[in-house]
Amino acid sequence: MTIGWPAVLRSGPVRLRPIEMRDAGPWRDARDRSADWLRPWDATVPPGGSPRAATFRAVVRAMRHHARAGTSYPFVIEVDGRFAGQVTVNNIVRGSAQFASLGYWIDRAYAGRGVMPRAVAMTIDHAFGAGGLHRIEIAIRPENTNSLRVVEKLGLHEVGYAPRFLHIDGAWRDHRIYAVTVEECPEGMLARYLQSLESHE
C-alpha cells in the first residue's frame, strides 16, 4: 500500500475518492459539457513529445500506475454522489523534499458553488496528514481567474512566476506559482477555509 493511498475523503456534500474505470461515462459527459470552458486551461503535448493516453481506460491505467508508485493521488470529486471533476496530487517527491504539485478541473455545472476550494483544501490536508508531505505547489495561468479565486479563497501565497512553464492549449504558457507548507496551516486547510466562510456570513 502506498503512503496516503488509496483514500476516501468527505466534507459536506463533497466526496473525494480514487478514480475508477466506471467513471468513464460521467467523465466523458462532464468533459463534453464543459469542453469550450476547459480548453484554454487543458494540458497539451508539445511538438515532439510523447503522445498522451488516447482512451479513458488508458488514462485511468496510467493514473493507477502512478498512484501505486507513490507519485500521485488521483481523486474524483463527487457532489451529492455525482461526478463533478478531478483533483490530483502529482509529481510527489520524497526524500528531503516531501513535495508535490496539485492540479484540478471541475464540470462547469458545479462551478461557482464552493466545490473546488473545499476539494482542494481536503486534498491538501490529506497530503500533509496521511501523505506526510511538507509542501504543495499549484501553478495557474495568469488569465485563469476562476482557478486564481480558488487559491485566493484558501489563502495560498504566490511564490513565483514561471515563464513558458507548461504546454497548455497548444503553446508554452506562463504560470503564477502558489504554494503552502504544513507549518502555514497548523489548524488544517479545510478548517481554515470553513472558518473563512463563517466569518463572511
SSE map:
Blueprint: E1 9-11, E2 14-18, H1 24-33, H2 35-38, H3 56-68, E3 73-79, E4 82-93, E5 99-106, H4 115-128, E6 135-140, H5 145-154, E7 157-168, E8 171-181, H6 189-199
Parallel strand pairs: 5-6
Antiparallel strand pairs: 1-2, 2-3, 3-4, 4-5, 6-8, 7-8
Report on the architecture of this protein:
This protein is α+β, with helices and mostly antiparallel strands. It has a single domain, classed as Gcn5-related N-acetyltransferase (GNAT) (Aminopeptidase, 3-Layer(aba) Sandwich). The protein is built from six helices and eight strands. Strands 1-2-3-4-5-6-8-7 form an eight-stranded mixed beta sheet, sandwiched between helices. Helix 4 crosses helix 5 (145-154) and helix 4 (115-128) packs antiparallel against helix 6 (189-199). The longest helix is centred in the middle third of the chain and has 14 residues, at 115-128. The chain starts with 8 loop residues before the first strand and ends with a helix. The model has no long low-confidence stretch (mean pLDDT 95).
Multimeric state = single chain
Distance between the termini: 42 Å
CATH-derived topology: Aminopeptidase
The pLDDT mean sits at 95
Number of E strands: 8
Give the C-level CATH assignment.
Alpha Beta
**Strand arrangement in the largest pleated sheet:** 1-2-3-4-5-6-8-7
